[in-house]
Design brief:
Blueprint (H helix, E strand, L loop, with lengths): L2 E8 L10 E11 L18 H8 L9 E2 L9 H10 L4 H16 L6 H8 L3 E4 L2 E4 L8 E4 L8 H10 L2 H17 L4 H13 L5 H12 L3 E4 L8 E4 L7 H7 L6 E4 L18
Antiparallel strand pairs: 1-2, 2-3, 2-4, 4-5, 6-8, 6-9, 7-8
Helix pairs in contact: 1-3, 2-3, 2-4, 3-4, 6-7, 7-8
């Protein structure tokens, strides 16, 4: 079974009760099925798998084989995906508890449950305070930029910054949610405003902040995903389906890897708006 990661479009650090955030599943995935035709993961190391270590400390089983394409530690929910892959088809309650315990340790603050729910649902959806609402978002072109990590700030520091000045972000997110629920599409003008506001809060690494500011100044939507600080940079340009040349032209001095990131969009069950039964 292939488990896909997630791309957080907006709402990072605000989904403990303040507002719903939107996530779409990645096309990339992980699997523990030895019969799967996936190539061995190029960067996975059992010795460095802290998720597996935490599961073992809890007396839970781990997989012997990990393969797939999902980038690890880049803000795409790979810790929760790894937990699901290791645990296989364990009950959802056990999985949620294991992910919450692991993320509390890895992230340094109480988990909202966002990543666990994204991994369980494997669809696009809105999440807030344990509540999931599936949405069928119209496909749009998005790109992910991989920037060298700095690790000068911790995730609790980023969370504190976001929460100390969240009023405008929450207002924009509520508008984005209404638009998604009403039309099944994203209001890109509002997402641009959201990205600008995030950038003004100084929640990014130095290199990332410079690149985000440059891309925003050229009219592209640019924001990091997941933990934000030095995670993958999401770039969307509604007027240009392939902004690679734009990114290269305006940021030639940065050593970045840019890749298209189609999101996994399985056919959704009509009117399915709640989480699966435990």
């Amino acid at each position: 079974m292939r488990i896909h990661g997630r791309i957080s479009i907006y709402g990072e650090y605000l989904m403990h009760g303040s507002v719903h955030g939107l996530a779409v599943p990645t096309e990339s995935y992980l699997t523990s099925d030895p019969d799967d035709l996936a190539e061995p993961h190029p960067y996975y190391s059992a010795q460095l798998d802290t998720v597996a270590s935490n599961l073992q400390l809890c007396g839970l089983p781990i997989a012997k084989h990990i393969s797939g394409t999902l980038p690890l530690g880049k803000g795409l929910g790979s810790s929760a995906v790894l937990a699901r892959v290791h645990l296989g088809m364990a009950g959802t309650a056990a999985f949620r508890a294991a992910v919450r315990h692991s993320e509390d340790i890895l992230h340094g603050f109480s988990s909202s449950g966002f990543d666990a729910e994204c991994v369980l649902q494997q669809t696009a959806g809105l999440f807030n305070a344990g509540q999931w609402r599936r949405v069928d978002v119209l496909p749009f072109d998005l790109w992910l930029v991989d920037i060298k990590k700095e690790k000068s700030k911790t995730l609790p520091e980023i969370q504190a910054t976001i929460c100390s000045d969240s009023r405008r972000l929450i207002r924009i997110a509520k508008h984005l949610n209404s638009h998604v629920l009403r039309s099944g599409s994203i209001d890109f003008d509002a997402l641009y405003d959201y990205s600008q506001r995030l950038a003004s809060l100084h929640v990014y690494s130095t290199v990332c902040s410079d690149l985000v500011s440059m891309l925003l100044a050229k009219g592209l939507i640019a924001k990091c995903v997941g933990g934000l600080y030095d995670k993958l940079l999401l770039v969307v340009n509604p007027g240009d389906a392939y902004p690679l040349a734009t990114i290269r032209r305006f940021a030639p001095e940065y050593e970045v890897m840019v890749s298209p990131a189609k999101f996994h969009n399985p056919k959704l069950t009509k009117n399915a708006t709640s989480t699966p039964n435990e």
